[in-house]
UniProtKB/TrEMBL annotation:
<dbReference type="InterPro" id="IPR013785">
    <property type="entry name" value="Aldolase_TIM"/>
</dbReference>
<comment type="subunit">
    <text>Homooctamer.</text>
</comment>
<dbReference type="GO" id="GO:0004655">
    <property type="term" value="F:porphobilinogen synthase activity"/>
</dbReference>
<dbReference type="Pfam" id="PF00490">
    <property type="entry name" value="ALAD"/>
</dbReference>
<protein>
    <recommendedName>
        <fullName>Delta-aminolevulinic acid dehydratase</fullName>
        <ecNumber>4.2.1.24</ecNumber>
    </recommendedName>
</protein>
<dbReference type="InterPro" id="IPR001731">
    <property type="entry name" value="ALAD"/>
</dbReference>
<keyword id="KW-0627">Porphyrin biosynthesis</keyword>
<keyword id="KW-0350">Heme biosynthesis</keyword>
<comment type="similarity">
    <text>Belongs to the ALAD family.</text>
</comment>
<keyword id="KW-0456">Lyase</keyword>
<comment type="pathway">
    <text>Porphyrin-containing compound metabolism; protoporphyrin-IX biosynthesis; coproporphyrinogen-III from 5-aminolevulinate: step 1/4.</text>
</comment>
<dbReference type="InterPro" id="IPR030656">
    <property type="entry name" value="ALAD_AS"/>
</dbReference>
Amino acid sequence: MSRRTDTMTLDPLNLLQRPRRNRKHPAIRAFVRETTLAPEHFIYPLFIHAGDDDVPIASMPGCARLSRRGLLAEVEAARAVGVNLVALFPAVAESLKTSDGREAWNPNGLIPETIKALKDRWPDLVIVTDVALDPYNSDGHDGIVAPDGRILNDETVAALCNQALCQARAGADIVAPSDMMDGRVQALREALDGEDFIDVSILAYTAKYASAFYGPFRDALDSAPKSGDKKTYQMDPANAREALREAELDEVEGADILMVKPAGPYLDILAALRRATNLPLAAYQVSGEYAMLKAASERGWLDEKRVVLESLLGIRRAGADVIFTYFARQAAEWLTGARK
Ligand code: PBG
């Protein structure tokens, strides 16, 4: 059979399957679309501090350590476009940091006071709190550091229970242990239930990797480890099966939601967990992922709106029900048409 190569008169190929037919019209593309992205899929991480001013974070353009006033304004703007889930991360004064991180369960601390202020204003706002000692720990680690440098697991878990109870008493809806200590989900569940906080959810950072993509976050909170790294508790980026093991444990220990973190470089882990569990999944598009997209967009190298929405859609497609993202407000504004 000879085919003429003149494109104007070419005989059609004998194809039964032409996938492009399902892409030929926007209305067809709309109903074959498998994944959705909407403001209700976002949890908005916000940095707070005790100061009166909003202090911009150099490596995270558009983000700041927010004052109480700045926080209320930001939450109001986010709610206006349908983002009603926020996660709070405190920048704590150096003078309050100790080796046992006890400021983490000070009932008059920054986090409990902020939760109360937010709930006063918006009783229906859903507040997620981070359970880990790094913002409060003079060593900059998520756990308690022994004199020989080891991170003490069981002692840390006891401290995390104090911290989560303090958050629950102030009104937190979801506590999110990001520390990666063994057994913390079960211990938190028992501690919460022991005080009748049976409706406080646990969102477990199940597969949290020892990632270089957390750099800007540690700048934001001044929370980088003073010595050593986090490799004895956070996971090795080389490992996938280990994430399934962590997922099984968090599930039997009573987690309500499992999380993978970071998101973009770990979509395979997210997809594997999606197949392995019936629990809802979260993913954290971390500070470094945000910084990359912001930096390239600021230089005009990428189209910010399109790459941000594509990155979030990819995370949803891989299996995330909900995404922690510093783009939450901005993306929701794009999705609702409030921003061009
Ligand atoms: C620490 C914590 C970290 C992040 C969330 N909780 C940093 C770390 O583990 O060092 C990182 C979030 C981000 O990079 O956006 N408990």
